Amino acid sequence: MTPVDWAGQWVLVTGASAGMGRQFAVQLAKRGANLVLCSRNEQRLRELGDELETEVRVIAADLMTDAGVQHLLDRLDALDVRIEHVVNNAGVGGAGHFSNQSPEQQILLTAINCTALVRITRHLLPGFLERQSGGFIQVASTAAFQPVPYMAVYGASKAYVLHLTQGIAEEIRDSGVRMMALCPGPVPTEFQERAGYELTGLQKKNNMSADDVVSKALVAYERGRRVCVPGFTNSAQTILQRFFPREFVTRASALVMRRSGRDKVA
Predict the structure, then answer these.
(1) Which of 30, 150, 158, 205 is labelled catalytic?
(2) How confident is the model at residue 190 (pLDDT cuts 50, 70, 90)?
(3) How far is CA 47 from CA 18, 35, 41, 50, 230, in A?
(4) Quick check: is 160 catalytic?
(5) How far is 217 from 134, CA to CA, in rounded Å?
């Protein structure tokens, strides 16, 4: 696969107003990429755009809704630029007993973590294939590798992203288009606050900064990797669990979630 030359390339970053999305924008701008930034918070996007020394377009859209996703796709088609790479970073979490969580919130979580990502990928991938260049960084999680009691919908949504990405990557193996799933472990951002919990114990001890995760992700993407699990501990955990029965892994995951109080989130 040919090396990535970011200079002058237009990159779409969703969920760009905070956390890893913001870091993707910052680091891609330093590499010379131009950016199309998307999130619900237009003010934050514009403030970020003013900080970056590159060309920036801003699209405010709520990707939890069909209308919001369609607005983004329509705006992308109307822009005077051509998207060459995509960072599908927008997503939300949710903790607590499955039966106690709001059905509406569960549906919205699935909508942004899964449906929006599929629609954006399906909309842009044909053009990438025609040009035989570009690609996608699809943000999943280490939660994708096992069932996650007390975050069951979130974990399942990230497993969906991981398997979808790997499946498409094989379909387009010889196309020149990159397709990588990014599976970070705990990253302290606004994500936890919105999901209703805090990092504790080993998760707090072993967390990685958004800056570090994004830096490793971009290197892996440039090397043509299909899956990136940043951090030795995170990578080791995803490998080791393959040697244990699924029931054991699930119970161990439940123990970690209970110790962090996620079973008590209303």
Answers:
(1) 158
(2) low
(3) 11, 14, 10, 5, 29
(4) no
(5) 15
Per-residue CA distances from 168 to 23, 56, 102, 153 (Å):
26, 29, 32, 22
From 154, 160, 197, 221, active-site residue: 154
Q: Which CATH class is domain 10-264?
A: alpha beta
Rg (CA), the chain: 18
SS3 label, residue 118? helix
Residue 162 contacts residue 183 (beta carbons within 8 Å): yes
d(CA 190, CA 207): 14
Q: Which is more confidently placed, 69 or 197?
A: 69
DSSP element (H, E) containing 97: none
Domain ranges of the chain: 10-264
The pTM score is: 0.91
52 phi, psi to nearest 5 deg: -90, 140
Dihedral of CA 204/205/208/210: which sign? positive
- Backbone phi and psi for residue 10, each to the nearest 5 degrees, phi listed first: -95, 130
- In Å, how far from its chain's centre is CA 127? 21
Best CA proximity match to 185, nearest among 146, 224, 242: 146
Annotated catalytic, 158?
yes
